[in-house]
Design goal:
alpha+beta, 14 strands, Tetrahydropterin Synthase, Chain A, four-stranded antiparallel sheet
């Protein structure tokens, strides 16, 4: 140890900290040889808390203001008395600063779908995502359980633990909920509040306070969304008969755009015949005052007559399983 270093740590310390960047939760103040002189001055600003660790234990936690620290390190005298230890005091002290401002826009989401039993659709898989906000509320717990004696600790190091805990709680709540998927959109705020209430004890166990929790979306995986869209389409069609007409019209339009061969013409004629028969059946039923029924399937409509080959477009018997012209299976 040089004379300059020896003299440099004998002065009364003035300890303070400003956050240099976003996302820093805890910071250990750099003190030479971890020797804080008795009477050191500690300044804690708004949005901060400071923990004074004296001789290995948290002696006190300080809020905003100016504080005087009491240690067994007396300027010059303590180090001189420990000449046999290379003038290094055995009385070690640290000051840890903690940011207590809100850590906003923290994102959570389900990495894999959550399977639940829906009262309307049976077993379904759901995805969800949203944001949450938290802050440090108890530096003692946060220091002993999370940060320890590390020099710095960041939000990114904690987000994985918090996210997985949120998803676990969300799974439990959705599994026991009697709200159907179709009603979840109007109940998202209530769902977020319920999850937040169950999450607060888990945050408090880490010295944190959950301030806000928002469920932005609850949705189905892509493959289940397609099934849902089909069901909605059938509901909008009104009944199966109209839905059959709609499907036949779409097939006719698709076939009409394919002018590259006899196969396209055959498909178009077949779809047109099915469409015409379905429309005539519905029109006659309406004219006679009879209830409108669903349109018959294409196989039933052509079973007793003729139809067209899906490959070459030639007319074939209605019950034929192979085309007599090209041999294509029907």
């Amino acid at each position: 140890m040089t004379l300059k270093q020896f003299l440099g740590k004998q002065f009364i310390d003035v300890i303070q900290w400003n956050e240099p960047e976003d996302g820093m939760l805890a910071y250990r103040y750099p003190m030479q040889d971890m020797e804080i002189q008795n009477g050191g001055q500690l300044t804690v600003r708004e949005s901060q808390l400071a923990a004074f660790v004296n001789e290995g234990k948290i002696a006190d936690v300080f809020g905003p203001g100016l504080h005087t620290l009491n240690t067994r390190n007396l300027p010059l005298l303590t180090d001189l008395l420990n000449w046999d230890k290379e003038f290094e005091s055995p009385f070690k002290s640290d000051v840890y600063f903690f940011s207590t401002r809100l850590q906003i826009d923290q994102k959570w989401g389900t990495s894999t779908p959550i399977t639940i039993r829906d009262k309307e659709f049976g077993a379904v898989r759901l995805r969800g995502y949203g944001i949450y906000t938290y802050k440090i509320s108890d530096p003692r717990i946060f220091f002993t359980k999370v940060t320890g004696t590390r020099t710095r600790y960041y939000v990114t190091e904690l987000e994985g633990q918090l996210r997985e805990t949120i998803v676990a709680r969300m799974t439990d709540i959705l599994a026991s909920s009697d709200v159907s998927f179709l009603d979840m959109a109007k109940n998202q705020a209530a769902l977020g509040q319920k999850i937040a209430e169950q999450m607060k004890p888990a945050f408090a166990a880490l010295g944190l306070e959950l301030d806000q929790f928002v469920v932005e979306s609850i949705s189905l995986p892509e493959e289940l969304t397609k099934v849902m869209d089909q069901r909605i389409g059938m509901s909008m069609a009104g009944d199966l008969g109209r839905f059959t007409q709609f499907e036949a019209a779409e097939s006719l339009e698709e076939a009409a755009t394919n002018t590259g061969g006899a196969a396209g013409m055959g498909v178009g004629l077949g779809a047109g015949a099915a469409m015409a028969q379905a429309v005539m059946t519905q029109a006659k039923a309406a004219a006679n005052g009879a209830p409108v029924v669903s349109a018959p399937s294409t196989d039933a409509a052509t079973a007793g007559g003729s139809r067209f080959c899906i490959e070459c477009g030639k007319s074939i018997p209605g019950r034929a399983k192979f085309c007599p012209e090209c041999g294509k299976a029907q």
